[in-house]
């Protein structure tokens, strides 16, 4: 087994899925994308989710982040049960408690870096906490670029804007689906460093889907999915250990 049972469990849980299942389609087209997955994401912990293509990584992330519905089971963000929320409450929870970083940076081209960073809060009619905002902008090294538009920024800088945008409202938890998938290795390393710093220095909770063992090594733990199930968990990952584990998935994505 892994060292999971040795880790201090008293820490608060930022998000939790319990026996979470997601089934697409019916009959011949039926796909069990998630099969009774139970997983916790503790506060101030950086988790990477890995597994073969089609194993359910994005589905898990979307269901836990309230972006997608699920078939059965439950999801909690902090103390809030997602299934108990009405649409508008869910929208508000996503906006206030969850940060997202996508593979495509999803910045608005007509807005400056700073305007992009504060956009979700502007839409919500909320004033950013200036000190926090400055801390985040400093951390991602964008102080000199705040007036630039996305087209005037490198890919790595654009993704740093997206990271700052996700952190700006000080969400309960930040989710990224291959946040470095479109970056060269140096820019990717920078963004991963900032994510790790946000966990270490700011106490953020981060959950990141990745295919890259080097990216996963920035996390505190790696959760491995196969066929919609959690098949393993690794604490203190190194790229070598992650690669070793990944080699044990066969060509069909099953675990051996
Ligand atoms: N809208 C949908 N309708 C039907 N099946 C779907 C839908 N979305 C995903 N699936 C199926 O659910 C399973 C899990 O998909 P998911 O996108 O979570 O995989 P993933 O692990 O993120 O893969 P990748 O690494 O390729 O992004 C796959 O078999 C996929 O074909
Ligand atoms: Mg995916």
UniProtKB/TrEMBL annotation:
Keyword Nucleotide-binding set for record = yes
The molecular function GO annotations come to: ATP binding
Q: Which UniProt keywords apply?
A: ATP-binding, Nucleotide-binding, Transport
Q: Which Gene3D superfamilies match?
A: P-loop containing nucleotide triphosphate hydrolases
* InterPro entries in alphabetical order: AAA+_ATPase, ABC_transporter-like_ATP-bd, ABC_transporter-like_CS, ABC_transpr_LolD-like, MacB-like_ATP-bd, P-loop_NTPase
User: Boundaries of each ABC transporter domain copy?
Assistant: 15-252
Name of this chain's protein: ABC transporter ATP-binding protein
Organism of origin is Streptomyces daghestanicus
